[in-house]
Amino acid sequence: MTKHAAFSSQAVLTAVAAPAPAGPHFSTFAPPLKGGALHCKKHVGLHVDLAATGVAVGGSWLESMKASSPRSAGGGENGDWTEMHPSALARFEAALGAAKGMKIVVFLDYDGTLSPIVEDPDRGFMSEEMRDAVRCVAEHFPTAIVSGRCRDKVFDFVKLTELYYAGSHGMDIEGPANHVQANAEAAVRYQAGSELLPVIEEVYHTLTAKMAPIAGAMVENNKYCLSVHFRCVREEEWESMNEVRSVLKEYPDLKLTHGRKVLEIRPSIKWDKGKALEFLLSSLGYAGRDDVFPIYIGDDRTDEDAFKVLRGMGQGIGILVSNFPKETAASYSLRHPAEVIEFLDKLAKYSKQGDGAAATMAI
After folding, report:
1. 44 and 165 housed in the same domain
2. How far apart are CA 104 and CA 147, in angstroms?
3. Are 94 and 183 in the same domain?
4. Which segment of 45-49, 85-89, 123-127, 155-159 scores lowest on mean pLDDT?
5. Structural domain includes residue 160
6. Is 109 a catalytic site residue?
7. Does 12 map to a domain?
8. Quick check: is 10 in a domain?
9. Distance between terminal CA atoms of the chain?
10. N or C terminus: fewer CB in 10 A for the chain?
11. Which carries the bigger pLDDT value, residue 40 or residue 82?
């Protein structure tokens, strides 16, 4: 029997009066494979709705999984790509040139941007050096973490109360307690698709049982979305991950997207990291203004929604964190989290210039 949620299109985005419950459930099954911990890469969601596109079984399913986990491109392609997406460090002055006299707002992905990619997603800790860099930037500019992780989980990693947090790919947003939303009496706190939480919880338990026999598989409950990790599953076992799609056939209110060694399950609503960026800018009172300069840094395919929003605005810059070329709407690039630290340090120093090159704002 097909399972539908009691879901109103008029209530896709719901304001809530209290913080979300505590962090995600995390289910780890048979021990992960040894010897690859340092080489496990971050997933990159491709926004491919497998149920809609008909990618189903056998070879087509496997080929789709392989295609979503590309290898590093050869050196011959790097030159042209870096010309199109130059280093945000090497071109810092040019990248920030248009920010003179503007209100800078900073948006940061977490995994692969602020923290290294690790074999166990539950141990994706950020360094103290990175935390200090983010803290320093937040002293000068409104700063948000926009992550696919559960909001509570990413807060536990970052531990900075002065930031805005948008978890579950931007579907669960909360601002610092000392910030009041523009034209409102309550602090910033929005949730998208709350009606589907019981359905997501049900699917989580079903998938936990289905994935249990697959060595190295993990199911992560990010509250408003689920992540089924197969980065530590032997490639000859990938076909068994088709169980995920089979489960989702019973839940038409959820969609399945295919990423880099991860399958993402989210509500079938029009909400993503780009929408979260727009919501936060509006909450800060910057909607429709031409004196705001958003900077968004991320490494995930889901960050492309935010990069595209900035392209559409014609304001700000998107910075892709990647050590190899890949298709992106970002204008600039950084190679790894260590370069993100350098960039954030330079940005904080830039804000301290006395010539008005950047506007300093209190959150």
Report:
1. no
2. 20
3. yes
4. 45-49
5. yes
6. yes
7. no
8. no
9. 49
10. N
11. 82
Residue 182: pLDDT band by 50, 70, 90 thresholds?
low
Amino acid residing at 361: M
Q: Pick from 244, 267, 290: which residue ends a domain?
A: 267
**What local confidence, expressed as pLDDT, does residue 237 receive?**
87
Q: Which position has the higher pLDDT, 344 or 354?
A: 344
Q: Which one, of 32, 28, 51, 48, lies nearest residue 40 by Cα?
A: 32
Range of the domain at 178: 86-187+271-351
Model pTM?
0.78
Rounded to an integer, the average pLDDT of 240-260 is: 88
Contact by Cβ (8 Å): 265, 254 = yes
Nearest one of 288, 294, 292 to 319, comparing CA atoms: 294
Instruction: Looking at the structure, tell me whether residues 175 and 290 fall in a common domain.
Output: yes
Among candidate residues 267, 284, 319, the one where a domain is terminated: 267
In the set 49, 80, 109, 345, the catalytic residue is 109
pLDDT band at 352 (very low <50, low <70, confident <90, very high): confident
Residue showing tokens 């460090």 = 89
DSSP per-residue string spanning 327-363: --S-SEEESSHHHHHHHHHHHHHHHT-TTSSSB----
